[in-house]
UniProtKB/TrEMBL annotation:
The keyword Transferase applies. It holds the Pfam family LCM. The lineage of its organism: Bacteria, Bacillati, Actinomycetota, Actinomycetes, Pseudonocardiales. Keywords: Methyltransferase, S-adenosyl-L-methionine, Transferase. Belongs to the UPF0677 family. GO terms for molecular function: methyltransferase activity. InterPro entries: Ppm1/Ppm2/Tcmp, SAM-dependent_MTases_sf, SAM_mthyl_Trfase_ML2640-like. SUPFAM superfamilies: S-adenosyl-L-methionine-dependent methyltransferases. Its EC number is 2.1.1.-. This is S-adenosyl-L-methionine-dependent methyltransferase. One of its GO terms (biological process) is methylation. Exhibits S-adenosyl-L-methionine-dependent methyltransferase activity. It comes from the Bacteria. It comes from Solihabitans fulvus.
Length: 257
């Protein structure tokens, strides 16, 4: 393990990178991430899958493909600003075919971004890529605006794997802050959980996601991971996070309650 390897919640990003690297090796891969294995190699690790992680690896592959599609659709629909909240070791700025004029903001803690920059040094992005040091528990919108985010133009937001590591109050503050800086036509994609099965998670959704999003000014759709697996032609493993919620939403209404 190298001295600059992410720790705490940031360390989970290394495991997720390993899962993305394994998916990228498959002949029937759902996406290709040519940089994922580099993060694992940078800490002296190897890409391998233990049987107990098969279900989680499947979930990561499904959600990665789903969010790839969601973000590209949002960009094509006019959201040329994309914000990856708690971006971790996400490499979408480098590997996706973004429309001309797209800016991708990667927001995370300083140690995560420093490690990421070291590993990706010299790799050109396929968009205007901007890293933003900020903590989601603090005034992160101000940091994004300082980095050039325009809150008068549509934004595509992604919260892929962070919400379960925030408390319920922190999640509510985050979704409220998103409403405050998202003009109509903005998009939101997120992953959360309906129940806590891992012990390390700090929050789960206490209501179905569509109603929860509507209360915060988003018209949302929940996506079943089993259905998505079928859409992508993948068999669902015998075990996996079936309790996980993937949701997509459009900022097109005022809160309903």
């Amino acid at each position: 393990m190298t001295a600059d390897a992410p720790t705490g919640v940031g360390a989970t990003a290394l495991a997720v990178a390993g899962f993305r690297a394994l998916e990228s090796e498959r002949a029937d891969r759902l996406f290709e991430d040519p940089f994922a294995a580099d993060f694992v190699a940078a800490i002296g690790g190897t890409v391998a899958l233990e049987p107990k992680w098969v279900g989680l690896a499947h979930h990561v592959s499904i959600r990665t493909r789903f969010f790839d599609d969601q973000l590209l659709e949002a960009a094509e629909a006019g959201c040329r600003q994309v914000v990856l909240l708690a971006a971790g070791l996400d490499t979408r700025a480098l590997r996706l075919a973004w429309p001309d004029g797209t800016t991708v903001f990667e927001l995370d803690l300083p140690d995560v971004l420093a490690f990421k920059e070291r590993v990706l040094a010299g790799r050109p992005p396929r968009c205007d890529r901007r890293t933003v040091v900020a903590d989601l528990r603090e005034d992160w919108p101000a940091a994004l605006v300082a980095a050039g985010l325009r809150v008068d133009e549509p934004i595509a937001w992604l919260a892929e794997g962070i919400l379960v590591y925030l408390t319920g109050d922190e999640v509510e503050r985050l979704i409220g802050a998103l409403r405050g800086v998202s003009p109509m036509g903005s998009r939101l994609a997120l992953a959360h959980s309906l129940r806590n099965t891992r012990g390390v998670w700090r929050s789960t959704l206490t209501e179905e996601p569509v109603g929860w999003l509507a209360r915060h000014g988003w018209h949302g759709v929940a996506h079943d991971t089993v259905g998505l697996s079928e859409r992508y032609g993948r068999r669902v493993p015998g075990s996996g996070p079936s309790h996980a919620v993937l949701a997509s939403a459009v900022r097109a209404q005022e809160p309903t309650g």
